[in-house]
Specification:
78 residues; mainly alpha; 0% strand; elongated
Length: 78
């Protein structure tokens, strides 16, 4: 369950994985208006592309049940 660590010749290496810094990282920089608009535009373009492909592709995927199946003249005996 608990793995025993190999002996390390340098004490600071053994303690390095237990080290926790008390320095807080700097705050994240806020995105500019242009970056936010660009992200929205990219997302909107992707969604519009997916919806457009569905709209254009659905007629090709649908089966037309209302019209009878066409038969060749050979199958009718002509």
């Amino acid at each position: 369950m608990f793995r025993r660590r190999e002996p390390v010749p340098f004490a600071f290496l053994a303690e390095a994985d237990r080290f926790r810094s008390n320095v807080t990282p700097p705050a994240r920089e806020r995105a500019s208006i242009g970056q936010i608009a660009g992200r929205w535009l990219l997302g909107l373009t992707l969604v519009a592309g997916l919806v457009g492909s569905l709209v254009l592709g659905m007629p090709a995927l649908s089966t037309d049940i209302a019209t009878p199946a066409q038969q060749s003249q050979a199958s009718q005996g002509h």
